[in-house]
Amino acid sequence: MTNRPTHLDESGTAHMVDVGAKAATGRRAVASGRIAMAPEALAAIRAGNAPKGDVLSTARIAGIMAAKRTAELIPLCHPLALTSVAVEFDWEADGISVRATAATTGPTGVEMEALTAASVALLTLYDMAKALDRAMLLGDIRLLEKSGGRSGDWRAA
Questions:
Q1: Cβ of 148: how many Cβ atoms within 10 Å?
Q2: Span 41-48, mean pLDDT?
Q3: Strand 95-106's sheet: what is its strand order?
Q4: Within the chain, what is the greatest distance between any pair of CA atoms?
Q5: For 25-147, which CATH superfamily applies?
Q6: Percent of the chain, pLDDT > 70?
Q7: Which of 62, 48, 71 is nearest to 126 (CA)?
Q8: CB neighbours of residue 5 within 10 Å
Q9: Which PANTHER family match (predicted)?
Q10: CA–CA separation, 140 vs 111, rounded Å?
């Protein structure tokens, strides 16, 4: 077995990395994304009168729930006991941006949990507002920063 974590075993077969010997440390990751939409859809969400109700609250809960279930969605991800997940939204001129933060104390990072939270929050925004605009554009999903673990801290340029 190699000392470098990899999702491939000696024969090249995919497997879950053994993190049992890694130290449990505080780990945190922040991911973001955005959704662009028609002015009418954005105005309805901002006013709180979208056809499906409170769009932002629903998207926030969906993002948090998704982070907690990342290991069920992404193959070979470790199930983690998250200590916190936050999903925040900012208004933009042509849409909404999302920022998801996930944290744990454990032997592996939470980058995938933060990215999953941001992605599902965006998908939920789309679902909640698609009656107003089916041409919404989701994108710019990325890791902004991570801290903790053997590889240390990282921040997007």
A1: 20
A2: 96
A3: 82-92, 95-106, 25-36, 137-147, 154-155
A4: 57
A5: Molybdopterin cofactor biosynthesis C (MoaC) domain (3.30.70.640)
A6: 86
A7: 62
A8: 11
A9: CYCLIC PYRANOPTERIN MONOPHOSPHATE SYNTHASE (PTHR22960:SF29), MOLYBDOPTERIN COFACTOR SYNTHESIS PROTEIN A (PTHR22960)
A10: 16
Q: What confidence tier does 22 reach under pLDDT thresholds 50, 70, 90?
A: low
Task: Please give the Cα distance from 63 to 96 (Å, whole number).
Answer: 14
Ligand-binding annotation for 80, yes or no, is no
76 is in an annotated binding site: yes
78 carries a ligand binding annotation: yes
pLDDT for 5 beyond 60: no
**67 neighbors 98 (Cβ within 8 angstroms):** no
Q: Is 127 noted as a catalytic residue in this protein?
A: yes
Name 105's bridge partners. Answer: 26
3-state class (DSSP) for residue 149: coil
Average model confidence (pLDDT) for the chain? Answer: 90
Catalytic residue selected from 9, 54, 94, 127? 127
Angle at 103 between CA 145 and CA 83, to 5 degrees: 170
Side chain identity, residue 54:
D
Element (H, E) at 82: strand 82-92
The span from the CA of 101 to the CA of 52, in Å, is: 26
pLDDT (mean) for 70-87:
94
